[in-house]
Amino acid sequence: MNSNSDTRQGKAGTAGGRAAQSLSGPTFEQIRKFWHPLSVENALAPYQIASSLAYVQVLMHMGELSQDEAARLTEGLRQIYRELLSGTSFLNDNDPDIYTGLARRLSELCGETAGCISRRSSVESLALDVRLWVRDRLVSAFRGLIELRQVLLRLAAEHEEVLMPGHAHLQPTRPQLLSLFFMGSESRLHRDFNRMEELFERLNMLPKSIGGDAQLEREFDYDVLSRLLKFQGTTHVAFAGDGDYLLEFASLAAITGVHLSQLASELLIWSSHEFGYVRLPRAFVFREQRFPARRNPEILEALRSRSALFAGRLAELLSIMKGIPLGYSHEANEALPAVLDVVTNLDFVLELSSVVLPALVFDTKKMSDAAQLDLENRGNVIDYLIEKDFPQEKATAIVEHLLTYTKERRKHLADLAPAEWQEFSPAFETDIYKFLTSYDRQEPYAGASLAEAFRSATKQLDEDNQFANCFSVDVFALVTGED
Amino acid sequence: MNSNSDTRQGKAGTAGGRAAQSLSGPTFEQIRKFWHPLSVENALAPYQIASSLAYVQVLMHMGELSQDEAARLTEGLRQIYRELLSGTSFLNDNDPDIYTGLARRLSELCGETAGCISRRSSVESLALDVRLWVRDRLVSAFRGLIELRQVLLRLAAEHEEVLMPGHAHLQPTRPQLLSLFFMGSESRLHRDFNRMEELFERLNMLPKSIGGDAQLEREFDYDVLSRLLKFQGTTHVAFAGDGDYLLEFASLAAITGVHLSQLASELLIWSSHEFGYVRLPRAFVFREQRFPARRNPEILEALRSRSALFAGRLAELLSIMKGIPLGYSHEANEALPAVLDVVTNLDFVLELSSVVLPALVFDTKKMSDAAQLDLENRGNVIDYLIEKDFPQEKATAIVEHLLTYTKERRKHLADLAPAEWQEFSPAFETDIYKFLTSYDRQEPYAGASLAEAFRSATKQLDEDNQFANCFSVDVFALVTGED
Amino acid sequence: MNSNSDTRQGKAGTAGGRAAQSLSGPTFEQIRKFWHPLSVENALAPYQIASSLAYVQVLMHMGELSQDEAARLTEGLRQIYRELLSGTSFLNDNDPDIYTGLARRLSELCGETAGCISRRSSVESLALDVRLWVRDRLVSAFRGLIELRQVLLRLAAEHEEVLMPGHAHLQPTRPQLLSLFFMGSESRLHRDFNRMEELFERLNMLPKSIGGDAQLEREFDYDVLSRLLKFQGTTHVAFAGDGDYLLEFASLAAITGVHLSQLASELLIWSSHEFGYVRLPRAFVFREQRFPARRNPEILEALRSRSALFAGRLAELLSIMKGIPLGYSHEANEALPAVLDVVTNLDFVLELSSVVLPALVFDTKKMSDAAQLDLENRGNVIDYLIEKDFPQEKATAIVEHLLTYTKERRKHLADLAPAEWQEFSPAFETDIYKFLTSYDRQEPYAGASLAEAFRSATKQLDEDNQFANCFSVDVFALVTGED
Amino acid sequence: MNSNSDTRQGKAGTAGGRAAQSLSGPTFEQIRKFWHPLSVENALAPYQIASSLAYVQVLMHMGELSQDEAARLTEGLRQIYRELLSGTSFLNDNDPDIYTGLARRLSELCGETAGCISRRSSVESLALDVRLWVRDRLVSAFRGLIELRQVLLRLAAEHEEVLMPGHAHLQPTRPQLLSLFFMGSESRLHRDFNRMEELFERLNMLPKSIGGDAQLEREFDYDVLSRLLKFQGTTHVAFAGDGDYLLEFASLAAITGVHLSQLASELLIWSSHEFGYVRLPRAFVFREQRFPARRNPEILEALRSRSALFAGRLAELLSIMKGIPLGYSHEANEALPAVLDVVTNLDFVLELSSVVLPALVFDTKKMSDAAQLDLENRGNVIDYLIEKDFPQEKATAIVEHLLTYTKERRKHLADLAPAEWQEFSPAFETDIYKFLTSYDRQEPYAGASLAEAFRSATKQLDEDNQFANCFSVDVFALVTGED
């Protein structure tokens, strides 16, 4: 075995050499875009500047930086932030990641003192900056949800008296109020808001590592850092990289995605010529090259489809996190592109829904006309006749006459007397009633509970709006100095 | 076209006939097991009896049933419940679903009056019974989480002074406390508990349909029903089938699944011969036929693996719900097998974790011995020598001597003087320090924050325990008459 | 540290004792159902008997068993198989798994000689039996796919001349042939068959471990085993547990699931009252308790939904397999419930599709009537008028008149002269043409390519049918002795 | 109702106006990046130019363009292609999609004649260009797989005699050959190649729409188009947007992802200090800011993790496609970002694996030293002693002595005589043998089958290499005029 492993040493050297060569195959830049994709780095960069600036202030507070040094570093970071806003990233192609890049740029501006920001644990820094970023995106989702809920309640109010055919299994059931469709969608989004609010409370805490370096621990003032970065308080963590709030966020986005997908799917069916309950005005349409005049409800199709993106990304995140060791690993970075995709698309679907819904034109006349037919029993009577050997076409014609007859008399098929049935066909015997669905028809359908639900929803929306508005987490005020 | 469609009628008749025949191909029972799987029906059956019993009491309260009738129905339902407990389901093979089955059985016992329980909307009934069931499973998850958190805090206390090698990327970093591993896991499960508590508040409300039948609405007393079924109150719903709380539940189970998967994965690596930090006693082991003596950590592998089940089921649920119309559809049933799999497996992974953790034997001596070596710099020095053309084997031998030397002196490699390096090899020049990681070594690692975190975790666990214990949602007291 | 670890030992003992107690909490049976679920064991049991029987014959062939011994064991296994067929499993509650169970039962019947079947590597045995099982399920999928493709081609032939409104984005486009709908679905399933055929070639090879025990290797006759179990040949494997063919199978099932989901979704929309293109006869329907007469297209909804099950299970399998070590692990067992769910549901969706499609009644008259309207331009003209400030209702009325007018003259809106437009409203100026889609209308739409495609599909289906029929993999002939 | 719907009309007008305004909220560019993301458009653009150029040639062949016109358009398209190669896209911000953009740019260069390329059906064009693109990416995957398989076979050859401890459940089993690890991984990738080859055959056919426009059908020469674009032939399609080959591609990528994830995971564990079987040279390492000297196996962690990306994207694709209507819809576009992510990452993981594997340094001495210990029985003997009330530390010490003793004598624990056991402790009674695993130890483990498997794998790899090399699908030769 010895000779074997001696030989191996020689090969090992060669292998090492080969590796170095091979690594120069794909360039550093190519590899980096898979390690630390630019899109993620751009999303994190401003938060990194803000947290660095707060870190500088804590160091000054702790006496590790003089006021002068802190002021110089603060001004340096502010300049880097201004450059970022004007489109110039502090990163250059040789920076392996944003932390190295920011330290390099800051030292160009402020000299050696800049080194202090590199003393932060890179694990904790990344965890903090991701948290700041996601917190902001959550506030953005609050706004999107509130705007959309306002749209839905407005639509409910505008259509409060409109009856339309009810559907279960896409088959006719009793007529229902169009406004219920909006009310129900709003209450779903209200619960989505509620869930995100609770997530917000959970993530709006500054993580404070336990069991670390005793000396560091004594001195580092997490409370000041927390106040500067506008957290509600601090929370102990043993695993600095813990990212369950990211999994929770992706789950909540996926649930909202499902809600909007169902809403869009319903509207797509309603917008077909055959249903004809809703119309997309042309203002709304993306023109196709070949059929310039065609109205394509692509926005609705995108809303129907995007819930799959959230679900897929969530599955990815759960699988990334599955079974990895508890110590820090690169998986914390691997998760970020999926998180970025989630937050970006959540904004997108909320905004687009708020745009598309008010633009739709509901054909309330067609709806209420159809609601006056006893569609629920239509199929049953056709079946009855077909089972008595009527051809389908003839059976259908007889039933259409029956429906016209009952509509004129504001009756249901179940209300007709045996003699009335006989007028339409002698085939109708008294067993016909066994095949009919009957119920006490109540008018109006909108009882007290609907009005009460509307009032309650409106009140809740106002409260949620206040929560979202009052709440200030603008960490950039710290950077711009407006704080 | 006419002749074509006439001909089609003929065919239609045939087709209908064929369909009936074909449908008798797979038997009704075979089909039913895909529609309404027995496992789901068994899970729901007791809740269905409880809610039916409460419904009977509401009808009596509303004057729609006499006290006598209500008493007879109540006794009938109690008998059915007792039969169920003793292993006899009320279902027979011809019942298309549990609602039909219960009504049939009750009418066998109580005659025609039993028909009143069929007047409930089947959509609302199913929604209610699923909610009662999941509420109970959530309480079960509370218990499982609390027990496991207790185990983890106990383990943290038992090992509070044990140092072990730290790992990042599975590579050596600074030594860390073994207890942090338990503390960190407990804090994850604390957050999981917290999330489930919030879900509980959300789902523990009786849904109250709006926009339905005005007369029904006036009369049906949801408040009494809510009190009987121990809900916290009522909440308006426009879509009776709304199941976002099921998606939320599956998400939370998936997050917990990930936490346990990581814990198990770490322990699996520790239990390898090469790590040797933990040992599974034989009491613990499932024997294999061929190697009767082998200890297989299959329980840990199951825990590592099952998070995939939660994630897959969640993906299924999200995809089932994507893009379906808003009206009621069969998808509400399609979701139930996945939900059942989630709740069953959540119980399983929590219970097994509570069993497996206390049974493990941590080799704290091996851990602390290894923690005294400067492993963090070991690889760096080997690299240093190899890059100076030492064969790997020789480089490794030199570094092992160095580690023994530093361990005896309780030093780090970075603490050695240039002369000391030279004693081990003349190849060590002063640039060696550039390749070493150095930091101020603090003893003990367990600072004030750890003790504070432990106290805070213990206090929180007590509160959560009280929440879970105090909270009574035993709807079956109603059935057994112990209420 | 010593005292600490000594103390730990004491605790370890206690912990071990506690563990044994705790493990007796959940009973062995409860745990086993999560380890080796009964459903999986039942699925594998017959294949296990068949492969054991073949193994016995190989041992005889190799001279390790006498002819008498082999005959006795063969008869024992056949008896166990007969018992299994008559509903009595060889497993009892104390068997930890099916391999132990079979060996125990066989030794009850044949005494000590039975021990030889336990000499098989349990890893290889499980791998082999799973392969035999999945091979059979694949043959079952072949049959299901062929039957369904026959149904689709028959429907295409029956409706070859029927025109219906075309849809893109669910909006009207040019009329299309109903038969295309069936042809296109058949060609999808043809490709699905094709993929499964290739998988079959890949999995129909007996795995032959390399690098194992040299002596065993010399002697064990894989070729005889392969012939007995009707494999096409042997293939070398280094990792006995390799299960990529299971991932492939689940992927192919998921693709088929998507195809059937889209088919079902289209038919669900067509079966709505508003579309009215297809009718479900009552023979077909599952009755609901409350609305006994309602026709619910639940079968179609199940078909739409089940693709989510395949996708979720596939995601589970991929996540189970992600990142596990290469050596054998329990994950090979963890995968089996998902695989069982996939094969069972694949059979189900194929069979149900074959039943539901011929039972549907297509309203070809309604389709062809609608196909004669220029629906494609309908919305454009309504938009035109609304943008000239017509109220929607009036705009719609005008356009309905226009459509009647053009239908009677078998024209498109784009074919009308300016004067004709003016008759309907002076608002129509010559710019109306800019808003219309026009194309050369060709009759008939069914060109040569359709007939050619039909012939080609029929021919391919015949070939596939022969492939599936000719191919015999009935390993049970070996067991029943009919071979 | 009338007054209501009249009022609604008024609102409709307003709503339309509002919509137009709202849509001007998010700019067209912002919306477009979600509709047609730039990354997807950049990936498709060259294929679109190639297919347009082929289309021009077909039109010339059919006599619809003169030779002059065709030459001018060809030169125009070539210029656009050269611009694209030099970094200038033909798209500008106002182009709604790449088809409109290319037509516009071509008409700028060639005037009105350019309009002919817009006559292609946009559905068919997109389907064709996606197919051309994915075909190319598949060829790229072929190359990546072959290179990686070469690396693995080379490693197997280099380590053919190295023994290492075997593992099952990460616990010790019999020693095994290191080379099996490479052989087994190669055979997985061989099957992956095989699957992709079959997909290639399936997708390398030009789709030919059936049932379309009869006149067009008669004249359009698909055979010429197929030849120009280097397809193997044509295939009939009824649904032009069919994308099951994309689902298949994503499935195959996910399977390969799992294979590489397991490989990486194993190596990560081996590279830990505790295992120490493999070392990453520093040449390989990405430096961290704070610990410049730390070697992080991030590449391996990325390989372990990325299989989650494939699985998540596959789940997304399957969910996007679930239950959408059969007519063309926007979902065909919605799928493309996920497909792009899959193809890009597949290239990435294959390339990185080929780089990382040869760079690793296997510590074959440590492996073979460990292989000589009877680790398999080690835990059993420790258990034996602990159950006789030995403290763990003492039990472990005794067993370490036993292992040294047996290693020196090249024996297994099961080979020791009772007297030998007694020398180590009187606690060892004769029942010790019941607790030991024993087997005939064969040397060498590498039997004939390994050599045969190696030869067979090498031969197969050569054939696959030839397949991949010979096969030319360079559609751009057409564009560059080198064809």
Structural shape of chain A: elongated
Structural class of chain A: mainly alpha
CATH hierarchy: architecture of the largest domain in chain A: Up-down Bundle
- Oligomeric description of these chains: homotetramer
Characterization of the model:
4 copies of one chain form a homotetramer. The first copy, chain A, has 483 residues and is mainly α. Chain A has 3 domains: 4-120, Fumarase C, Chain B, domain 1; 123-366, Fumarase/aspartase (Central domain) (Fumarase C, Chain A, domain 2), CATH 1.20.200; 372-435, Fumarase/aspartase (C-terminal domain) (Ribonucleotide Reductase Protein R1, domain 1, Orthogonal Bundle), CATH 1.10.40.30. Chain A has 19 helices and 6 strands. The first copy, chain A, has a two-stranded antiparallel ribbon with strand order 1-2. In chain A, strands 3-4 form a two-stranded parallel sheet. In chain A, strand 1 (163-168) and strand 2 form a beta hairpin. The longest helix of chain A has 37 residues, at 122-158. The first copy, chain A, is elongated and about 100 Å long. The N and C termini of chain A lie far apart (70 Å). The model of chain A is unreliable at 1-25 and 287-294 (pLDDT under 50).
